[in-house]
């Protein structure tokens, strides 16, 4: 599907709404879309791809279908086995300290992980370290002030994280999976862009709204507005020598 386009955004949003009942459809579609985005900048056939925090392996499987040598690194064994088995070749590993040599990957891929780490800059530094000079780093994350920033408690997180969690428990009878300050952190577009652009080891290839049907690159340039309208920021970085 053309990116950006209304058709693509509608298909992804519709799949997201059915995530709980049709997770395979949702994540396979998202994996195909992410692989398409990577291939706009680098061919996947023959590339070494490190999928950091890739959960149950949908992204890694899609990279392998396109001829890449895909390797999955995930710290949560429950996520790894969410489909009943761990993906072939998966490694239990912390994104702060990946068991990879410097420059081992042609592409380092991270989808919706940055908002779940307490120190995003150290995490990003590790992604850069394992990427070869000239290689690509793909980082997408849901920013806190996005309508989906509170994850399962959204959009009630706008009224406060604790209030949103209390509402979720009342409505579902179970605690929310994510707790702000423990496994979910308030990451912001403006702060992240300033920090990335200040680095001397990467160049920003694109910073865009991952799912927007139009103006995908324009939205993250608008201070204030971008914190809500971006929804999910996609950064494509080039590793510098």
Note the main attributes of this structure.
single chain, 241 residues, alpha/beta, 8 helices, 7 strands, 20% strand, Methyltransf_11, SAM-dependent methyltransferase, methyltransferase
How much beta, percentage-wise?
Answer: 15-25%
Largest sheet data: 7 strands, mixed
Separation of the first and last Cα atoms: 34 Å
Radius of gyration: 17 Å
Strand order of the largest sheet: 3-2-1-4-5-7-6
Task: Report the helical percentage.
Answer: 25-40%
Question: Which class do the helix and strand fractions yield?
Answer: alpha/beta
InterPro entries: Methyltransf_11, SAM-dependent_MTases_sf
GO molecular function: methyltransferase activity
Pfam families: Methyltransf_11
Domain Methyltransferase type: 51-139
Write up what this structure looks like.
GO terms for molecular function: methyltransferase activity. InterPro entries: Methyltransf_11, SAM-dependent_MTases_sf. Keywords: Methyltransferase, Transferase. This is SAM-dependent methyltransferase. Pfam families: Methyltransf_11. The chain is globular, with a radius of gyration of 17 Å. The longest helix has 17 residues, at about 25-40. The protein starts with 5 loop residues before the first helix and ends with a strand. The chain has helices at about 5-15, 25-40, 60-65, 75-80, 120-130, 160-170, 190-195, 225-230, and strands at about 50, 70-75, 90, 105-110, 130-140, 200-210, 230-240. Helix 2 packs across helix 3 (about 60-65). Helices cover about 30% and strands about 20% of the residues. With about 240 residues, the protein is α/β, with parallel strands linked by helices. The chain is built from 8 helices and 7 strands; from the N terminus they run H-H-E-H-E-H-E-E-H-E-H-H-E-H-E. A 7-stranded mixed sheet has the order 3-2-1-4-5-7-6, sandwiched between helices.
């Amino acid at each position: 599907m053309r990116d950006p386009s209304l058709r693509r955004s509608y298909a992804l949003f519709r799949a997201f709404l059915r995530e709980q009942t049709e997770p395979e459809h949702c994540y396979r579609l998202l994996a195909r879309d992410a692989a398409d985005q990577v291939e706009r900048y680098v061919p996947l056939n023959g590339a070494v791809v490190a999928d950091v925090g890739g959960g149950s392996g949908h992204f890694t499987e899609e990279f392998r279908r396109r001829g890449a040598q895909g390797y999955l690194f995930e710290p949560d064994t429950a996520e790894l086995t969410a489909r009943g088995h761990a993906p072939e070749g998966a490694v239990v590993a912390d994104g702060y300290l990946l068991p990879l040599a410097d420059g081992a990957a042609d592409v380092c891929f991270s989808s919706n992980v940055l908002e779940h780490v307490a120190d995003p800059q150290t995490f990003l530094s590790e992604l850069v370290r394992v990427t070869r000079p000239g290689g690509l780093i793909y980082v997408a994350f849901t920013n806190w002030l996005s309508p989906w920033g509170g994850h399962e408690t959204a959009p009630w997180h706008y009224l406060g994280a604790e209030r949103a969690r209390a509402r979720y428990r009342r409505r579902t009878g179970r605690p929310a999976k994510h707790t702000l300050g423990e496994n979910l952190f308030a990451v912001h577009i403006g702060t992240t862009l300033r920090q990335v652009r200040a680095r001397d080891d990467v160049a920003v290839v694109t910073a865009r709204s991952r799912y927007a049907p139009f103006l995908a690159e324009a939205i993250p340039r608008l201070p204030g507005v971008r914190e809500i309208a971006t929804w999910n920021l996609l950064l494509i970085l080039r590793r510098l020598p």
